[in-house]
């Protein structure tokens, strides 16, 4: 009986050691995932992954990834019932990350990210800004550049127009609208940032085309005043 107990104890100890060896990075706070599927959209890469045997979706700034690759991450912001307009798909949950680290860039002993090893395919997440960016985004067919809208605001007032620009700031669900700042690199008298109200969900760094109605001298109250604004913007493919 004592021999059986001894064997069981040894088996338990060995199994515990083996389990620890399987994931030497656990104590570092890094979470290990194995890619199952990759979906690319304009500014994000969606990864369907396995984490400790559980399937989940994560989203990272655009990067190259392949099924069966191993990555590590920390933190993140989980979004429930997230709808992707580009995919026309609702995810039950998506974990949004500023970045994810290839297994080759993780110290195998200490379980920490090697500061000298980076994933060259991964682009850093862009941060919201209202500063003028160095852009040169051409107008889409039948569209108007942002500088022209400010220059000839009265001419376009009440008109339905198309614009394309890079999203520099996104604020959701204020007064029942999403508020989207876009720039295309043009300006008039220092005005370069066009506000778009919309029901569309976008991300900072997305280059998006909208179609909507131009309003001028629009005052929503509570400090929301815009010399030129594109209202009820709908995304143009």
Topology:
Blueprint: H1 2-22, E1 31-40, E2 44-51, E3 54-61, E4 70-73, E5 77-84, E6 89-96, E7 101-102, H2 146-151, H3 153-156, E8 160-174, E9 177-183, E10 194-198, E11 207-219, E12 225-236
Parallel strand pairs: 3-6, 10-12
Antiparallel strand pairs: 1-2, 1-4, 2-3, 4-7, 5-6, 8-9, 8-11, 9-10, 11-12
Notes on the structure:
- By secondary structure, this protein is mostly beta strands.
- The protein folds into two domains: 25-125, OB fold (Dihydrolipoamide Acetyltransferase, E2P), CATH 2.40.50; 146-236, Beta Barrel (OB fold (Dihydrolipoamide Acetyltransferase, E2P)).
- Helices cover 13% and strands 42% of the residues.
- The protein has helices at 2-22, 146-151, 153-156, and strands at 31-40, 44-51, 54-61, 70-73, 77-84, 89-96, 101-102, 160-174, 177-183, 194-198, 207-219, 225-236.
- It has a seven-stranded mixed beta sheet with strand order 5-6-3-2-1-4-7, with no helix packed on it.
- The N and C termini lie far apart (74 Å).
What integer value in Å does the Rg equal? 24 Å
Number of domains: 2
Which secondary-structure class do the elements indicate? mainly beta
Strand content: 35-45%
Mean pLDDT figure: 80
Shape by Cα distribution: elongated
List low-confidence stretches: 1-22, 111-123
The CATH class of the largest domain, by name, is Mainly Beta
* Sheet with the most strands, sense and barrel status: 7 strands, mixed
Please provide the count of β strands: 12
Distance between the termini: 74 Å
Helix content: 10-25%
Give the SSE order as H and E letters: HEEEEEEEHHEEEEE
> Which architecture of the largest domain would the CATH scheme give at its second level?
Beta Barrel
Which strand order spans the largest sheet, edge to edge or round the barrel? Answer: 5-6-3-2-1-4-7
Q: CATH topology of the largest domain, which one? A: OB fold (Dihydrolipoamide Acetyltransferase, E2P)
Helical element count?
A: 3
Oligomer: single chain
């Amino acid at each position: 009986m004592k021999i059986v107990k001894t064997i069981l104890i040894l088996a338990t100890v060995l199994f515990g050691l083996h389990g620890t060896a399987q994931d030497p990075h656990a104590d570092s706070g890094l979470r290990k995932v194995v890619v199952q599927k990759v979906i690319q959209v304009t500014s994000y890469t969606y990864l369907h992954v396995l984490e400790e045997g559980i399937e989940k979706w994560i989203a990272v700034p655009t990067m190259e990834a392949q099924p069966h690759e191993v990555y590590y991450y920390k933190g993140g912001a989980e979004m429930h019932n997230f709808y992707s307009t580009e995919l026309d798909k609702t995810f039950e949950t998506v974990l949004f990350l500023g970045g994810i680290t290839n297994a080759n860039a993780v110290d195998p002993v200490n379980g920490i990210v090697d500061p000298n090893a980076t994933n060259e395919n991964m682009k850093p997440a862009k941060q919201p800004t209202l500063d003028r960016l160095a852009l040169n985004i051409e107008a889409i067919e039948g569209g108007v550049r942002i500088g022209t809208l400010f220059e000839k605001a009265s001419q376009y007032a009440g008109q339905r127009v198309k614009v394309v620009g890079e999203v520099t700031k996104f604020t959701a669900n204020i007064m029942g609208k999403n508020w989207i700042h876009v720039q295309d690199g043009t300006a008039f008298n220092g005005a370069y940032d066009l506000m778009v109200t919309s029901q569309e969900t976008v991300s900072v760094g997305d280059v998006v085309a909208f179609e909507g109605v131009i309003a001028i001298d629009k005052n929503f109250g509570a400090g929301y005043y815009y010399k030129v604004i594109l209202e009820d913007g709908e995304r143009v493919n």
